[in-house]
Amino acid sequence: MTDEIAGKPVPRPTEETRDYWEGCRRGELRLQRCSECRRVQFPPRRFCSSCLCARLESFAALGRGVIRSYSVVRHPLSPAFAGDVPYLVALIQLAEGPTMMAGLRGCTPDTVAVGMAVEVEFEARSETHVPYFHPA
Predict the structure, then answer these.
(1) Whole-model pTM?
(2) What's the DSSP call for residue 79?
(3) What is the number of H-type helices and E-type strands within the chain?
(4) How many angstroms separate the CA atoms of 124 and 33, rounded?
């Protein structure tokens, strides 16, 4: 669920996502690892998506990854993002294995590339911080 600040969505943490969003506020990207099969997963869940174990541990990820795919957004879904177009949204394969979708900054539609190494950064929105990535 989300609230909005100046029209941009602000995530509302749930029981499953609270640790993730608290980590973002501290400037760290947090992932989950299954205590049984050791698989790393994203997004946060109550159970391991591989073996259904409920014993999950949270840890700080490296915050690095590689672009696997991207899209150039030229028509914003909300007027709150109108000043940002064109902007980039990418699927980032994190160093730990999972893939997450996030905005890209520090590159343009002409300079972004599949396979580009990226690092996480965070944008403050109220008391929540939202992850974005930029070229490493």
Answers:
(1) 0.89
(2) G
(3) 1, 10
(4) 26
Give 85's DSSP letter: -
CA dist 64 and 121 (Å) reads 10
Q: How far apart are CA 19 and CA 136, in angstroms?
A: 25
Q: Name the pairing type of β-strands 128-135 and 99-104.
A: parallel
Mean pLDDT for all residues in the chain: 93
SS3 17: coil
* Structural domains of the chain ordered from first start: 2-135 (2.40.50.840)
pLDDT of 1 reads 39
Burial class (CB in 10 A: 0-12, 13-18, 19+), 135: middle
Going by their DSSP bridges, the two strands 87-94 and 117-125 should be labelled as unpaired
